[in-house]
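Let us practice reading a record.
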Amino acid sequence: MNRSVWLWIIAILITLASARWQRMTGPTHELSGTVSLGGSAIHYVLDRTHAGPGDHRVALGTLPADVAGVTEWKDYRSNDAWTAVEMRREGDSLVAALPHRPPAGKLWYRVRLARGAETIVLPAERPAAIRFRGDVPPWVLVPHIFIIMLAMLLSTRAGLEVFNPRPQFERLVWGTLAMLVIGGMAIGVFVTHYAFGPWWTGFPVGNDITDNKTLIALLGWVAAALALGRSKLEKTWIVLAALVTLVVFAIPHSWTASEPLHGVLDAAGVTVAAPADSVSGAGVGDSAAVK
């Protein structure tokens, strides 16, 4: 294989690794783990995003019959007391509902499980934060994800083009710029609108990290495009744009948010609520591309 093919292979591997990293560190990635309660191993998955109408269903499955549970929640960044709702049994599962919030609204929540005299809290150190959003139609979301991934691939490949003896930057640079404009801006504003209401929440009207990351990457490639054929430093501008894009898209969407420890949030105590007769909102959406 010639050098260009190897550079494409390397670019694809970097892009896939970056996508995996974004997925694992993003705010929509669920919290999961396995704990021991009364001698039994219990696996849990706690969602951190809810798409669409209805309350959010919290469910823990494959639990011994003598395990009881309570779900506690409070509004995000509030000093309110925890609201505790007894989880009800559905077969070998315990379920409860978190009350729906408007798009971009968030709750802290945690689950207490008891078996005999032993009690555990999930997650162990700090609560989970769940954000509510509207449904993003597939005809918007799928092209957005595909084109943004293509932009990342072209960006990485453009940066690697410096290793070719006779680099050909023009198509890669303009292709990257076009994909960022189409996927990140033209389609991205529809994703934001369907999910949260506004069309744009980054600079200068807001400080949303996802919108600002797209804007920074776009400006980097505008600078690289302007340097094509006009500057002796065009290679430097292109490599810098590729590195900036790689770095900003590697920043987790939730890097500015760290959930407080349980003890910090316990000062107001716990208010016990009556369990709901039904648990709605069973349909939950989750995507790495949605903020």
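A brief commentary: The chain has six helices and twelve strands.
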